[in-house]
Amino acid sequence: MPESLLTADDLFLFNQGTHHRLYKKLGAHLVEGGTSFAVWAPNAKHVSVIGDWNGWRADADPLRPRESSGIWEGTVKGIGHGSRYKYAIVGPDGHKRDKADPFAARAEHPPATASIVWQSRHEWGDQAWMKTRGPKLAHNAPVSIYELHLGSWRRDHGSVLGYRELGEQLGVHMKNLGFTHVELMPVLEHPFYGSWGYQVTGFFAPTTRYGAPDDLMAMVDGLHQNDIGVIIDWVPAHFPTDAHGLGVFDGTHLYEHADPRRGFHPDWTSFIFNYGRHEVKSFLISSAVSWLDRYHIDGLRVDGVASMLYRDYSRKPGEWVPNEDGSNHDRDAIAFLQDMNRAVYAAYPDVQTIAEESTAWSGVSRPPEHGGLGFGFKWDLGWMHDTLAYLEHDPIHRKYHHDQLTFRAIYMYTENYVLPLSHDEVVHGKKSLLCKMPGDPWQQYASLRLLYGYQWTQPGKKLLYMGSEIGVWAEWNHDAELDWAVGNHPAHAGIARWLGDLNAAYRKHRALHVGDCDPKGFQWLEGGDREASTLAYVRIGDPNDPPVVVVANFTPVARDGYRVGLPRGGYWREVLNSDAEIYGGAGLGNRGGMNAEPQPWHGRDHSMMITVPPLGMVVFVAEG
Which residue, 562, 571, 539, is CA-closest to 614? Predict the structure, then answer.
């Protein structure tokens, strides 16, 4: 039986903050004859393992400190896979605290809080996907993401589905709609279901609410074999104050800052990590890498990045601690994010990290060596806010708010963007996307189709929250499944069909995705037509890719005889029309396309006179 899984190099790298695979050494690991345990508790007076085999007695299985590393370790004979345990830690104050294992591979089903010794037996079958996945999430790839809350997507007579059932049904749904990736929330273990997984206690354990770790592996495996990538939400910005969690772990503020002005989040009533502590950095980076390694995850969407970057985030004067020079940037958090991204891309250059960052911070998706944070993509929350605000105006007033549509062109290539219509926009009184649209039901349906067409033809990757694909009327409720019955209504089925055709066109026509993150990929044809509330632009791919022309009308008045400039002559085929009858529209359009006329317009040598349906969009592709 080995005395320790930790080598001298492991201890050095851990204390230096550069150990990126601690999950292989700390926590619980099966060894010959029993289970090896190791936990970081440098200020503890005494540490022992308590569990279902020893009656949860703190005197039964003590651990020993390993040199000056702060790690306590030991092997318990005769126990193995499935055993429940915690660490009993006596702090410098003399109080005993029973803590879950920070590195646990599995946790009990909440509200129970013990950790579970776990060794996976899953045999992966996604080798073909893993060899070819990199280009599928690249900056020039067609990436459309379906965001999903595991517990409220579908249910069986009110009961949540398990990972395996979810994976099977989700694979079919994703194939039908044509999405390339799914983003799962909540995956990391969390004590309070209503937090949607953003108050994490298990940074290495998938939530047991939907099954065992092997069940999640099977779900990811199956999706991969159906050519669907998997992104998960990962939350290094904060953690909850639950007694069994990381807070005051060894009787001291070990993982969090001791000063509440730096270590406590006022909005979320949670602790904030001490990113300047080397061991905390090793812990968090190891968590990120573990999901890519053990679960074959293709991308990490990092939540709450803005809250990490600023010391005064959501704080009033006197409630935060400035830097010595009086500035408000959290330099430790910035360095951590840079190091995390370096480590992730070094280990897995074929994945992506995606930042949910809501401010104008420069260089979120630029490499650290160029002064950036190193993310692969950033959510464009400005686009989301401006677009939804514009569409919520009565169409008669939209001409006074035209800049809300066109402003994005100033910054659209300053980052590698994902255009999100996420869960945050359809909860807590915000209404569903369909209900945000003004007017009668016909106008609401048409406006929603127009919104999706605008999103799918703008530069940037696409993200849509579940339920929006069928235009649910009700805002999202995490305690109930989606109203799937509404999808049987012709108008709602038309929305889903429109979205499927948008995804198909986005994949097929390279001009719609090759330049998503390249300034050559977009040019205005008409961005200033306030009176008609109409936009026209061209999407451009590589030199041999046919250009795509998009014209969008944001009023309920048809634009008949609307002339639009063209980047070249020849025949232009109408490949998408949001007002087509198959989508629930009236069928106004351009009879499948037309030839360009040698009449200059919009600064181009050719143009054509088209019909743009009310609250509608038409998309043309050059042929020949």
Answer: 562
Q: Is the dihedral of CA 100, 102, 107, 112 positive or negative?
A: positive
Instruction: Report which secondary-structure segment, H or E, holds 337.
Output: helix 331-347
What pLDDT is recorded for position 237? 96
pTM: 0.97
Q: Do domains 8-116 and 521-622 have the same CATH topology?
A: yes
Q: Write out the DSSP string of 485-514.
A: GGGGSHHHHHHHHHHHHHHHHHHH-GGGTT
| Cis peptide leading into residue 111 (ω within 30°) | yes
Which tens digits make up the pLDDT trace of 600-609?
999 999 999 9
Q: Is 303 a catalytic residue?
A: yes
Predicted confidence band at 2 (pLDDT cuts at 50, 70, 90)? low
Domain layout of the chain by residue ranges: 8-116, 521-622
Tell me the CATH number for domain 8-116: 2.60.40.10
d(Cα 278, Cα 356) in Å, to the nearest integer? Answer: 24
Distance separating alpha carbons of residues 400 and 590, to the nearest angstrom: 29
Known catalytic residue at 52: no
Q: What is the pLDDT of residue 576?
A: 98
What DSSP line would sit under 584-604, residue for residue?
A: TS---S-TTEEE-BS--BTTB
Instruction: Give the Cα separation of 536 and 549 in Å (integer).
Output: 7
CATH architecture of 521-622: Sandwich (2.60)
Marked catalytic residue, from 215, 303, 330, 574: 303
Report d(CA 412, CA 399) in Å as an integer.
22
Pick the catalytic residue from 61, 183, 279, 356. Answer: 356
The closest alpha carbon to 455, from 535, 377, 518, 519, belongs to: 535
Helices 163-177 and 490-508: crossing angle in degrees, nearest 10, is 80
Q: How far is CA 73 from CA 11, 118, 558, in A?
A: 12, 18, 73
